[in-house]
Amino acid sequence: MIIGRVLENEKKVKFELDIFCTNCGKKVPGRLQTGESYYQTQEFHAELEDFKKNYLCGVCRDKKRRD
Ligand SMILES: [Zn+2]
To answer: How many angstroms is it from 8 CA to the middle of ligand 1?
Structure first.
């Protein structure tokens, strides 16, 4: 999964993160990627926080789509 910004021809930084579903609380191991110049910037951290705040696991996402 890519978050943030990846410039053209830029190397990607891969990192892993435990994410919790905001609906059922299930822990999901996330494998994320972002652009090298974006990684660890303030924007990056803000976006990561936002991503975690809105994260739904696959099951909850499907459920939401069906409702
Ligand atoms: Zn869930």
So the answer is: 34
pLDDT score recorded for residue 37: 97
First to last CA, the chain: 25
pLDDT tens figures, 42-58:
999 999 999 999 999 99
Expressed in angstroms and rounded, the spacing between residue 32 Cα and the centre of ligand 1 is 18
Q: Which residues of 7-21 are buried (b: 16+ CB within 10 A; e: fewer)?
A: eeeeeebeeeeebeb
Centroid of ligand 1 to alpha carbon of 51 (angstroms): 14
- Establish how many alpha carbons lie within 13 A of residue 30's alpha carbon, considering only the half-sphere containing its beta carbon: 21
